[in-house]
């Protein structure tokens, strides 16, 4: 068997112009950390597809691109097809039999047999590019919820694509700021797809694919989360189905020919994944966590408790709680600003794991599917039930917004106000609410976070921070069978009487024990609020009030000063707002200056 994690890149000329090979090679070189085990490029008249390889299974073979026997069809992918063994077996006695044990060849052979409809047969996380010389078309395909990134640039003459934006920039496209993305970033604390911080560079949306011919680019939906229907089952039936589905999702992700392990925080999600892994493995699970020297914020005892329960080979390293020196590095690897500082400890634990393994399982996705965040508990009060639909939407929009429209009017300079549409974020959310209108209100909120927050921020974190140190992340909760199960489940089974993940916790408490199941959920709770007033003050002054920052003419300086002064004097806690503005300035200095 053979699976490659990696990065992909390439271009498609609408006017059939062939680009110099060295320009294409630079696209791969710019993301070589995503695939340090080799580079492969198909280069033909007006089209190129390339791959940086990080080999996980059957390390001897499987270099990409994969090309059909007649030379007409070319495939590259970043990701994994977890059910490639089963698909290859299905193809065994057909004209489309696989000649290797590589999951990328499975993509090629399935496409040869079924055409583009083959995608729905894949269980995996993937970004795929297929050039079909018979049609002279390029397909760019993204997985169901956006575990793997896939960006593209388009103008009148060509499309360029890559796993990271920096790959497209290395191709030499014109670089300019998308000011509308600044506005959406300051709404959501991340830039939601399909837009990016760069003009004319877009993100292929989860569950969609692009078909690109010489004269047009078309977007198509191949998987639709909103189409899932609610099912009626007893609690015991839900528990049984939950455990069976998750068990299979973990088991299929244990296929690897390199050392692997798991991130273990001691929270319910990572503890559950490690608990199931331990049932399927003959060797102890290798687990990794970081703790903080400052005992007020150190949670490593919970990870140790889970490690002891499941007899894992546990590696824990205590670090300083202030990891903000990693901020520029994190921003470089993300290509876009993120106000979420938990990227930094994620990078640190990935660095720790990369010393021993090339792949880890994680608990990513469970909070969005099963209402794990405290924000759901604080929002869904009895009062919410009394609101009409429009009021509910407006209230939830405000609940997840960093700066609302009124705050932006005070914050933005006149020049920025003229450049952005202040209604864009709310229109984007209204469209998503419409898609989710068939769900109950709790599931509507989870639908928004699954479609926006997951792909826009929470899956960027494990992908970019893992790939930065050439380590792959697998998320069993994001198996599509698990996602479809979650959205067929009534919301009151996820959030009940103030208990988050209600049915999920009932399902796993025998596995992980009551202490880990019902411990208070912790976020990255270091005292950044206080640091902004003290040890980080020089950084705040540089990023928000220096001549360099002011020269951008984006914000009303008096408003930013009041935001910071009110924070320092304890009038209001503006940590998240200040952090987002700092993140934006770091991004400008990393990519624009």
Detailed description of the structure:
Helix 8 links the parallel strand 14 and strand 15. Helix content is about 45%, strand content about 15%. Strands 2-3-1-9-8-10 form a 6-stranded antiparallel sheet. Strands 4-5-6-7-11-12 form a 6-stranded antiparallel sheet, covered by helices on one side. A 5-stranded parallel sheet has the order 15-14-13-16-17, sandwiched between helices. The longest helix is centred in the middle third of the chain and has 18 residues, at about 235-250. Helix 6 crosses helix 7 (about 270-280), helix 7 crosses helix 21 and helix 10 (about 345-355) packs across helix 19 (about 460-470). With about 600 residues, the chain is of the alpha+beta class. It contains 27 helices and 17 strands. The protein is globular, with a radius of gyration of 24 Å.
């Amino acid at each position: 068997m053979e699976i490659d994690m990696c990065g992909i890149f390439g271009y498609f000329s609408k006017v059939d112009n062939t680009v110099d090979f060295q320009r294409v090679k630079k696209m791969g070189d710019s993301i070589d950390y995503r695939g340090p085990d080799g580079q492969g490029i198909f280069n033909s008249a007006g089209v190129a597809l390339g791959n940086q390889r990080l080999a996980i299974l059957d390390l001897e073979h499987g270099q990409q691109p994969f090309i059909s026997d007649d030379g007409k069809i070319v495939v590259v992918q970043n990701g994994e097809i977890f059910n490639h063994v089963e698909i290859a077996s299905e193809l065994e006695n057909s004209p489309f039999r696989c000649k290797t044990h590589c999951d990328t060849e499975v993509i090629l052979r399935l496409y040869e047999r079924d055409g583009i409809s083959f995608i729905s047969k894949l269980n995996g996380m993937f970004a795929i590019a297929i050039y079909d010389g018979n049609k002279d078309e390029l397909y760019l395909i993204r997985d169901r919820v956006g575990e793997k990134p896939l960006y593209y640039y388009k103008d009148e003459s060509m499309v360029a694509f890559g796993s990271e934006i920096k790959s497209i920039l290395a191709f030499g496209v014109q670089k300019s700021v998308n000011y509308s993305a600044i506005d959406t970033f300051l709404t959501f604390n991340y830039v939601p797809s399909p837009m990016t911080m760069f003009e004319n560079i877009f993100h292929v949306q989860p569950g969609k694919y692009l078909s690109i011919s010489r004269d047009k680019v078309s977007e198509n939906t191949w998987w639709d989360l909103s189409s899932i229907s609610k099912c009626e089952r007893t609690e015991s039936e839900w528990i049984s189905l939950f455990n069976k589905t998750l068990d299979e999702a973990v088991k299929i992700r244990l296929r690897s020919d390199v050392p692997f392990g798991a991130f273990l925080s001691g929270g319910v999600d990572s503890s559950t994944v490690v608990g199931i892994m331990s049932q399927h493995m003959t060797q102890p699970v290798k687990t990794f966590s970081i703790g903080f020297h400052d005992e007020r914020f150190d949670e490593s005892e919970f990870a140790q408790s889970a490690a002891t329960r499941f007899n894992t080979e546990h590696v824990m390293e205590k670090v300083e709680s202030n990891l903000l020196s990693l901020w520029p590095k994190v921003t470089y690897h993300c290509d876009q600003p993120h106000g979420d500082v938990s990227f930094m400890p994620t990078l640190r634990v990935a660095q720790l794991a990369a010393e021993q393994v090339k792949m880890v399982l994680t608990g990513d996705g469970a909070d969005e599917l099963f209402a794990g965040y405290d924000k759901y508990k604080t929002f869904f009060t009895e009062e919410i039930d009394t609101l009409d639909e429009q009021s509910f939407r407006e209230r939830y929009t405000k609940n997840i917004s960093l700066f609302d429209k009124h705050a932006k009017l005070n914050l933005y300079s006149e020049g920025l106000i003229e450049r952005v549409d202040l209604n864009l974020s709310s229109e984007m959310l209204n469209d998503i609410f419409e898609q989710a209108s068939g769900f109950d209100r709790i599931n509507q909120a989870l639908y928004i976070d699954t479609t926006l927050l997951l792909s826009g921020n929470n899956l960027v974190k494990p992908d970019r921070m893992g790939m930065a140190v050439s380590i792959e992340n697998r998320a069993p909760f994001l198996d599509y069978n698990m996602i479809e199960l979650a959205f067929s489940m009534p919301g009151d089974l996820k959030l009940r009487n103030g208990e988050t993940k209600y049915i999920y916790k009932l399902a796993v408490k025998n596995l992980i024990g009551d202490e880990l199941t019902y411990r208070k959920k912790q976020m990255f709770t270091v005292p950044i609020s206080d640091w902004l007033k003290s040890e980080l003050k020089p950084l705040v002054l540089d990023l928000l009030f220096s001549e360099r920052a002011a020269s951008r003419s984006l914000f009303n300086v008096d408003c930013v000063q009041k935001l910071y002064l009110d924070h320092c004097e304890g009038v209001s806690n503006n940590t998240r707002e200040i952090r987002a503005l700092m993140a934006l300035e770091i991004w400008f200095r990393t990519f624009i200056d």
